[in-house]
Amino acid sequence: MNTRNTKVMNRFDVTSRLIGKLKHEEAVIGGIGNTNFDLWAAGHRPQNFYMLGSMGLAFPIALGVALAQPDRRVFALEGDGSLLMQLGALSTIAALKPKNLIMVVMDNGIYQITGAQPTPAASVADIVAIAIGSGLASSAWAADEEDFERLVEDAMSAAEPSLIAVRIDDKPGVGTTRRDPVQIRERFMHGLGVREPL
Amino acid sequence: MAIAEQQTSPQATPGSGDRSWHGIVLQTLKRNEISLVPYVPDRVLTPLIKNLHADPFFTTFATAREEEAVGIVAGAWMGGRRGAVLMQTSGFATLANVLASLAVPYQIPLIMFVSERGTLGEFNYGQSLVCRTMRPVLDSLALEHHTITRLDELEFIADRSIKQAVTTQAPVALILNPLLTGGKTFDK
């Protein structure tokens, strides 16, 4: 990881920059733990979905949303440890080629929320190389914050699924997601126009 | 295909008005507007999977792991599209975490078709053991489940179970017993 020519960024800052780019009620799926804490802290939107478990399923859930609503761009935020738990999902997504799906991997090389144990991404595994090897040709490390914003803009008009990997520091998430799963799902479905509020 | 049907579904009569078990499942899915069907392959499910692929109504594809398929149909439900997951018994055994942390607490009508291995002539000790974990897991989560053994009951059970899952926003497992499907043969 130290050999990569990429700046170490901050998850909350990067997440806030991503949210700032959204203009068309894009869906955003937050993975478990700090990824969705920072999504929440960046400002709740009805199009945000917050996971409370099911480690590794942010990309599959986002794929389902993307298949259900092909005209809406769908982002998913995942940690390196979570992604390593469910690498097969990358091949599934590569095979289906949903052009409206954008995957963001927050890679700090640690299982941060469980005590900062190192993941293989800290030393040997390269998330972008794995993604490309899984068939996701449009995968790249963000060199710095400006490069991240440029990659997000490119992905929003891309004709194939995109994966953006970001090296981040070990700062904890800024907020704490409210942990009411039914409320989270209902508000998300309202945000996607599937449900009307009572 | 012909061989698979011969092995797994003695009642199969291909074509329109197909009253084979897999024809009934396909028509029941369609009637309930379930168009997204990710699966992890299974020998007994082969004719159903093949016919789903052949029907443009369905978006059907293999996933690397069953929990991935559950995540996909959960996301699709929230986006307004109905799905169902196909798997075999050993695949169900990998799902306890995603059922308890996604489908149940978020109240998502996850529809699962499980091809039952490990019973009625099973030859693989591992399959017979893993089969015994399935119903205790379903019961411990208070999940609706039905074991379908008869062709004449299949449509009623599948159709009503899907409608109940959707209207009560709760997962359901439909277990396809070898008495219905013919099961897997010993010589493989």
Report on this model:
The complex is a heterodimer of chains A (198) and B (188). Chain A is an alpha/beta fold. Chain A has 8 helices and 8 strands; from the N terminus they run αβαβαβααβββαβαβα. Chain A has helices at residues 11-21, 34-41, 58-68, 80-85, 88-96, 127-133, 145-155, 181-191; strands at 27-30, 48-50, 74-79, 101-107, 110-111, 117-118, 139-141, 162-167. In chain A, the strands form 2 sheets. A 6-stranded parallel sheet of chain A has the order 2-1-3-4-8-7, sandwiched between helices. A two-stranded antiparallel sheet of chain A has the order 5-6. In chain A, α7 (145-155) links the parallel β7 (139-141) and β8 (162-167). Chain A is globular and about 50 Å long. Chain B is of the alpha/beta class. In chain B, 47% of the residues lie in helices and 17% in strands. Chain B has helices at 2-8, 21-31, 46-54, 66-78, 89-92, 96-103, 125-131, 134-140, 151-168, 178-181, and strands at residues 34-39, 59-62, 82-88, 111-115, 144-148, 172-176. In chain B, strands 2-1-3-4-6-5 form a 6-stranded parallel sheet, sandwiched between helices. In chain B, α3 links the parallel β1 (34-39) and β2 (59-62). In chain B, α2 crosses α3 (46-54), α2 (21-31) runs parallel beside α9 and α4 packs parallel to α6. The longest helix of chain B is centred in the C-terminal third of the chain and has 18 residues, at 151-168. The interface between A and B is large, with 39 and 32 residues.
